[in-house]
Amino acid sequence: MAKIHGIVEQTNKDGAANSTNIVRNRLKQDHGVNVSKRTVNRRMNEICYWGTGVRRNINHDSIKNVEYRHKYLERRLANLTAQLTKDGKQRWIPKHPEVFLDESYCHLDHTAPARWIIPGVPVAEPGRSPLLIIFAAFVVWYDKDKEELRSKFIDESVYIWPSIGKAHTKLGGAAKNLFNKE
Fold first, then answer.
1. Is residue 29 assigned to a domain?
2. Is 154 in contact with 137 (CB distance < 8 Å)?
3. What is the tally of structural domains in the chain?
4. Is the dihedral of CA 135, 169, 15, 53 positive or negative?
5. d(CA 98, CA 30)
6. Tell me: the pLDDT tens digits for 30-63?
């Protein structure tokens, strides 16, 4: 099991692909150990390694997280009011505008595993390019004049910065928001 742990740890540090077959091949190549795919899977589960998306983080259902979700939902529901539409259907709209924060991560050369390539157009190969963090706030409100739910990103809130180093702000940092490219 120590050999499996070492292989998985090294491939993760290298940022290389990692699968049961890769671990099997490395065991055979580096250590002369020939095992089945099923044995590798079983051993990896025994040392608490799980495939992506296979097992939830146990902290998702901790007492504090459940309490926080409950309070969050109570507050969200308290800001909603019922309204009848012109066709007599009931819908829920916010009493007061609500602001939501969004944090996203994107690799500069993100590509789909299967893609169509146009002849003559250069295409970046997938790899370990810089990761960007994109942060923005958006507001949701009910427009009484148009009788519709509206939303929009708050222009000055959109920031993009590389994941390496400290977070950058308007006051001190290399990254700029999209609308203040000084």
1. yes
2. yes
3. 3
4. negative
5. 57
6. 889 898 988 888 888 787 776 655 655 666 677 8
**Residue-range definition of the domain harbouring residue 25:** 2-46
| DSSP H or E segment with residue 182 | none
CA atoms within 13 A on the CB side of 36: 3
Rounded CA-CA distance 159/135 in Å is 5
Residues 180 and 103 in one domain: yes
Cβ contacts of 122 within 8 Å, gap of 6 or more: none
Separation CA 90–CA 82 (nearest Å): 6
130 and 156 share a domain? yes
The model's pTM is 0.47
Please check whether residue 39 lies inside any domain of the structure: yes
Residue 51 lies in a domain: no
Mean pLDDT of the 71-91 span:
90
Residues 68 and 149 in one domain: no
pLDDT in tens, 41-50: 888 878 777 6
Tokens of 127: 């790899």
Q: Tokens representing 56? A: 């939830």
Q: How many other C-beta atoms can be found within 10 angstroms of the C-beta atom of residue 129?
A: 13
H/E stretch holding 11 reads: helix 2-14
84 and 103 belong to one structural domain: no
